[in-house]
Amino acid sequence: MIRTIAIANQKGGVGKTTTAVNLSASLAAQGRRVLLIDVDPQGNATMGAGINKNGLEQSVYTVLLGEASMLDARVKAQGGFDLIPANRDLAGAEVEMVNMPDRETKLKDAIHTLKAAIAAVAEEYDYILIDCPPTLNLLTLNALCAADSVLIPMQCEYYALEGLSDLVGTLRKMQQHLNPTLEIEGLLRTMYDPRMTLSQQVAAQLEQHFGNKLFKAVIPRNVRLAEAPSHGLPVLLVDKASKGAQAYMQLAAELIARHEAQPSD
Ligand SMILES: Nc1ncnc2c1ncn2[C@@H]1O[C@H](COP(=O)(O)OP(=O)(O)OP(=O)(O)O)[C@@H](O)[C@H]1O
Ligand SMILES: [Mg+2]
User: Fold this and answer.
1) In this structure, is residue 29 part of a structural domain?
2) In a domain? residue 177
3) What CATH number is given to the structural domain containing 81?
4) How far apart are CA 133 and CA 234, in angstroms?
5) Probe residue for ligand 1, chosen from 7, 14, 18 as the CB with the greatest number of ligand atoms within 8 Å
6) Given 28, 94, 106, 170, which is the most exposed site by the fewest CB atoms within 10 A?
7) Which domain range does residue 236 map to?
8) 228 in a structural domain
C-alpha cells in the first residue's frame, strides 16, 4: 500500500464526498487499486459510487462493531474501485463501540478500530481513501488514526480560512496524542469560480499561506460534478471531457507523481 488518505473538513458541504468519489475513480482510471471507505452516516459517498445504502447487510458499521470483516463488507463501486459502504446505522456506532462489553481500555481501542480493520486488506490496494463526516466525532477520529495523511477540501469563500485554523489545531492534537505520523496531504480548492473576485482572492491567500501544501489542481464549480451523484456515478463515467472530470484526473496525477516518483538513475 502506498497511502491511506482521510478526506476531512469539519465544515459541511465543502466537497469532501465529491472529492472522495471522483478522486477514487480518477486514481482507478490511472491504473491504481483503490479502496474508498465511507465513514459518514449520510452515506453520500456510497450512493455516489452507485451502491444503494438502504438495506445493506454489511457496512462500515458492522465492521466497526466487529460483526463483519472488511472482506465481508466490501463491494465493487461504479468507477473501478472497491467501497466499504455506510448508511445511517453508523450514527449509533459511536455509543455502541465504546460500550462493547469486551473492551478493556474502551475509548482507545474504539479509536483504533478502523486502523486495525484496514490492516487486513491494505496490501491489496495502492490508495485507501476515507470520506469523513462534517464533525469531529469518534468516526472521524478513527479515520484520522488510520490515515497517513489528511486531504482538506476547501471552498474558496470568506469563512474558509477561519474554519481552517480549527482544523489545523485538531490535527496538531491528533499528532500529539493519537497519530504522531499524521501529515497534511494538502489543501484542495473546490467549487472554484474564476469569475468571482472573492474566489480569486481567497485562492491567492491560500497560496500565500500554504504554498507547497496546496494542490496545484483546482476543482472548478461544475454542473456535471453536481449531477453525477444523481446517476450514482463518478463524473468520469458521466462526462469525462467535463472540466470537473479533468480537474479530478489532474489531482490524481498530482498525488501519483508525489508518492510514486521514479528513482532517478
Ligand atoms: N466542484 C463542484 N461543482 C459543483 N457542485 C459541487 C462541486 N463539489 C461539490 N458540489 C456539490 O456541492 C454539494 C456538497 O458537496 P459534497 O457532498 O461533496 O460536500 P461534503 O463536504 O461531502 O458535504 P458534507 O459535509 O455534508 O459531507 C453537493 O450537492 C455536491 O454535488
Ligand atoms: Mg460528505
Assistant:
1) yes
2) yes
3) 3.40.50.300
4) 19
5) 18
6) 106
7) 3-258
8) yes
Looking at the domain assignment, is residue 263 inside a domain? no
pLDDT digits (tens, 9 = 90+) for 147-191: 999 999 999 887 777 778 888 888 999 999 999 999 999 999 999
* Helix boundaries (H) for the chain: 16-29, 44-48, 60-64, 70-73, 93-98, 106-111, 113-119, 138-146, 160-177, 197-210, 223-227, 243-259
Residues with CB under 5 A from ligand 2 (ion): 16-17, 44
Report which of 188, 172, 185 is spatially closest to residue 251, judged by C-alpha positions.
188
Report how far residue 216's alpha carbon sits from residue 212's, in angstroms, rounded to the nearest whole number.
9
Of the ligands numbered here, which is closest to the C-alpha atom of 18?
1
- What percentage of the chain has pLDDT greater than the value 90? 74
pLDDT, one tens digit per residue, over 112-123 is 899 999 999 999
How big is the chain by its Cα radius of gyration, in Å? 18
Give the position, in ligand 1's atom list, of the atom nearest the Cα of 134: 25
Q: Is the CB of 3 under 6 A from ligand 1?
A: no
Residue located nearest, by CA, to atom 6 of ligand 1: 226
If you count them, how many residues does the chain have?
Answer: 265
Say how many domains are in the chain.
1
The pLDDT of residue 142: 94
| Confidence label for 202 from pLDDT (cuts 50, 70 and 90) | confident
